[in-house]
Amino acid sequence: MDDAGAIGGRGERLQAAEREAAKQRLLAQAEAERIPVEDATRAVPDRRWRHAR
Q1: Which distant-in-sequence residues (6+ apart) come within 8 Å of 14 by Cβ?
Q2: Using alpha carbons only, how large is the chain's radius of gyration in Å?
Q3: Distance CA 13, CA 11 (A)
Q4: Rounded distance between C-alpha atoms, residue 7 and residue 45, angstroms
Q5: Domain locations in the chain as residue ranges
C-alpha cells in the first residue's frame, strides 16, 4: 500500500511539474506576442470619410 501511495504521489508531482512548465511556456508566448497598449489604442485617421466632403 505504501508503494502505491508513493507511485501516485510521484505521478501527481510529475503532472504538477508538467502543468507548471506548460503554464510558463504559455506565459512566455503570450508575452512575446503582446501588443503594447500604446500601439493598440492609437487613433488612426479614417481617410474614407474625407472623400465624401
Answers
A1: none
A2: 25
A3: 5
A4: 63
A5: 1-34
